Amino acid sequence: MGLRGGIDLGGTKIQAVIVGASHGVRGQARIPTPKDGGPDGVIAAMAEAVRTAATEAEVETSALDGVGIGSPGEVDPDAGTVTNAYNVVPDWNRTISVGDILATELGTKIGLGNDVRVATAAEFRLGAGKPYRSLLGVFWGTGVGGGIILNGSPWRGRGAAGEIGHMVVRRNGAKCTCGREGCMEAYSGRRAMELEARRRMKHGEKTALFKIMERKKRVALTSGVWAEALEHNDALATDLIDRAVAALGAGIASAVNLIDVEAVVIGGGLGTRLGEPYVARIEQQMGPHLFVDARPPAVHLAALGDLGGAIGASLLIKR
Q1: What is the reported pTM?
Q2: Which CATH code fits 4-115?
């Protein structure tokens, strides 16, 4: 039938799509990432999301050519395993055979890739990166991940290339969720920002962030929570987002100084939700840090939006 599935596994949501041969979306499903069942609960939810999307597309999962998965953590595509996906659930600190489990659950073959790399590949092939031969994808969400395209091909280094969230933007700086200090993600990752918001609130600062979270029945400060707080000029939310934008500008510019790409594409949960005005602010913050400031890269919002990661994951399945 030429139909493929794709899953974008994130810290707050699981997005699944069913796409056709021309990459058009035939069915989709989005569910919150469960936090109370550990990795096993997350994998079960991934299977549920694919089944729901397949029902919308009027196809059985066993009839799909396969399902691709874009996952955080240490991904081994050959072994079909994911290790240390702590941005999904904190206790995902072991190696799990995600590919084998989902192949059994869904009755089709499974492809695995790093979540940000597959999203970058999708933007390069189908989205905002189409005009370029070199590209840096920056996905601003629970963490901050990066993907690199050089001369038309993905650059993986020895397996860990693109970890832009763990570029140091301040020596001896804020503690990152990875355990190191001064990482861009320590200032810009949604998980780290929530921890900082909780710390400041305990020290007496006022914020509506957690009231909004409770009203929306969320278990974390999602992109929608941050967006609503910003709309109401919440002082703490504004300060933390301003800090995040400054860190993103410094870190992205430093990466551009090293690899000199033609373009930067910014996506992810926060990047997509906050949209063009914040992409423009990040681009402005990059300016003072660019070595060749007379020839900056083009900076774009991810064109595929929330579905980019899942569509990119589907590209892992070859006909």
Answers
A1: 0.89
A2: 3.30.420.40
